[in-house]
Amino acid sequence: MTQLEIGMVTDGLDTAIEINPEKLHKAIGEYVAGSILNTNHEGLSPEKWHEIIGAIQAEAKKSRLHVPVLYGIDSIHGATTLSAAPCFRSRWEWPPPGIRN
Predict the structure, then answer these.
(1) Backbone angles phi, psi at 11, to 5 degrees
(2) Would you say 35 and 69 are in contact if contact means Cβ atoms under 8 Å apart?
(3) What does DSSP assign to residue 68?
(4) Residue 89 DSSP label
(5) What one-character DSSP code corresponds to residue 25?
(6) Three-state secondary-structure class, residue 43
(7) Distance CA 58, CA 55 (A)
(8) What's the whole-number mean pLDDT along residues 79-84?
């Protein structure tokens, strides 16, 4: 299974990204990509995410096996990829509490 990042099947930058149907068909239909990882660093509205993921899954339904494409949203440091989502600071300290000299 091949994993791509969202910029390989979209045009535009930041919140103005749009699915490019030709790129999407090539990625899923020809190269049989099995997953797409969101690496967009701008928060998008839930409606925009539904549009993007819906287009990806619609293309997957046209494929020979009709297997859905896995879609991952990178939120290592909080949910910053969805507009209006709460963003909590990651608490990281070294050494962890309780492991002191």
Answers:
(1) -120, 155
(2) yes
(3) P
(4) P
(5) I
(6) coil
(7) 5
(8) 57
Residues, the chain, total? 101
Domain chopping of the chain, boundaries: 2-73
Both structure tokens of 55: 């287009």
* pTM (global) more than 0.90: no
Whole-angstrom Cα distance, residue 9 to residue 21? 8
Both tokens of 23, joined, read 């790129």
Name the more confident of 27 and 44: 27
pLDDT of residue 55: 95
Tokens of 27: 């990625």
Which neighbouring-strand residues pair with 3?
35
Q: Is the pLDDT reported for residue 67 higher than 60? A: yes
Cα–Cα distance measured from residue 11 to residue 87, given in angstroms and rounded to the nearest whole number: 27
In Å, the largest CA–CA distance within the chain is 60
User: 25: how many CB neighbours lie within 10 A of its CB?
Assistant: 15
